[in-house]
Specification:
The chain is of the alpha/beta class. The protein is built from 15 helices and twelve strands. Helix 8 links the parallel strand 5 and strand 6.
Length: about 400
């Protein structure tokens, strides 16, 4: 772990009147993603000192992404959300510049993407911004193969699969790949947060996925507003044609939808350097460090009356290795404090601490050591102890 400035030396945030947060939640975009390493920041600073042909830079960056991931081709984007938009756009327009210039008007194009109803989520809006129509299959309990096949027609551009913790009843990724390819259709996968493990940068394309979107600002430790799209060379070229910058001609004066999702030279360079560093990291050491932190926090929190904490490590496909997290439950009646109240006090009082709590889904609180600096695990448990002390 690289030593960084103490977070309580606020610097620019103090000038702006913004209070930093100790992040025990994870690499969420709303918390700033992750913390870039000094080498990444230095590279971005160097990139800011020069002008460059943006299309040339984008092309070379895509080649490096492909080399590291083993994919047919790659594209650096302004985030996994943009990667999804470019994937959908590429599947609809192909290399037709007139179609590229016309989006989100999809008249005359294959403009439908098949998605399981249980996979509908706020992120599918990133597909719909292109003008594509999402065709739901299945219900909130299960999806059957025949429902997917029945939804496929002459307007179908692709299938899409969102990677989350496996949900009972959903049709597997393997089956979706099989069905898509049986109908000569590509399949798009949202794998924004699916590293670690590092192997997932190759696993999905090795399985036969045609286009995969990853975040560059999470475990890869690149700029928060970067992402990558990898996959089949022809589809990446079509997706790139909708992006900005791009290296493919369009009618004079025309921009694709990617003009609103442009990525700067500094971001492209930062992502490439971060990805190179991530490929060389000691991933086992990272996992051992997180596990040690998690075990410490669980042990310390279990000392608190009316609280139970345990380390949760999920090992499942298509996410074979998950970061160890701490599941914390509170006896709200005995302690006189609800989980929601504890979470509110943690994020509003000093030091501010972010944790994971979705009361509409689960009453537990989750602590994630992934973004904690050395020693911050002690601050987290001591803060919780102080709040719950009589």
């Amino acid at each position: 772990m690289v030593n960084r400035l103490n977070r309580f030396r606020l610097g620019i945030y103090e000038e702006l009147g913004v209070r930093p947060i100790i992040n025990a939640g994870g690499t969420f975009t709303y918390l700033g993603g992750s913390m870039m390493e000094p080498e990444v920041l230095a590279a971005m600073n160097d990139a800011a000192k020069h002008f460059v042909d943006m299309a040339e830079l984008a092309k070379r960056a895509g080649e490096i992404v492909a080399e590291i991931t083993g994919a047919g081709a790659g594209l650096v984007t302004s985030g996994a959300a943009a990667s999804l938009a470019f994937a959908a756009a590429g599947c609809m327009t192909g290399m037709d510049p007139a179609k590229v210039a016309r989006l989100p008007d999809t008249t005359g194009m294959k403009n439908e993407i098949v998605v399981q109803r249980k996979h509908r989520n706020p992120h599918d809006h990133h597909l719909r911004v292109t003008g594509v129509k999402l065709v739901e299959v299945g219900d909130m309990f299960r999806t059957s193969s025949w429902e997917v096949e029945a939804a496929i027609n002459e307007r179908t551009a692709a299938l899409v699969y969102f990677i989350y913790d496996p949900m009972p009843g959903t049709l597997s990724l393997e089956k979706n790949i099989e069905l898509a390819h049986a109908h000569n259709l590509p399949i798009i996968v949202d794998a924004a947060a699916e590293v670690p493990p590092f192997e997932n940068l190759r696993n999905f394309t090795d399985m036969g996925v045609d286009l995969v979107a990853f975040s560059g600002g999470k475990a890869i430790l690149g700029p928060n507003d970067t992402g990558i799209l990898i996959g089949r060379k022809d589809l990446i070229e079509a997706s790139s044609m909708n992006a900005f910058p791009e290296d493919y001609p369009k009618p004079f004066g025309a921009f694709g939808i990617g003009r609103t999702m442009k990525v700067s030279k500094e971001q492209i360079v930062g992502l490439v350097v971060a990805l190179k560093r991530y490929a060389k990291r000691d991933h086992k050491a990272d996992m051992n460090r997180w596990k040690k932190m998690a075990e410490f926090m669980a042990r310390e929190l279990n000392v608190i009356p009316n609280m139970k904490a345990s380390v949760v490590i999920l090992e499942q496909n298509p996410r074979p290795i998950c970061i160890p997290k701490i599941e914390v439950s509170i006896d709200e009646r005995a302690s006189g404090m609800s989980a929601s109240e504890l979470v509110k006090r943690l994020i509003t009082e000093e030091p501010r601490i972010a944790v994971v709590h979705w009361p509409s889904y689960h009453r537990s609180i989750y602590l994630n050591p992934q973004c904690l600096l050395d020693g911050e695990e002690k601050i987290v448990v001591n803060r919780i102890k102080s709040i719950l002390s009589p």
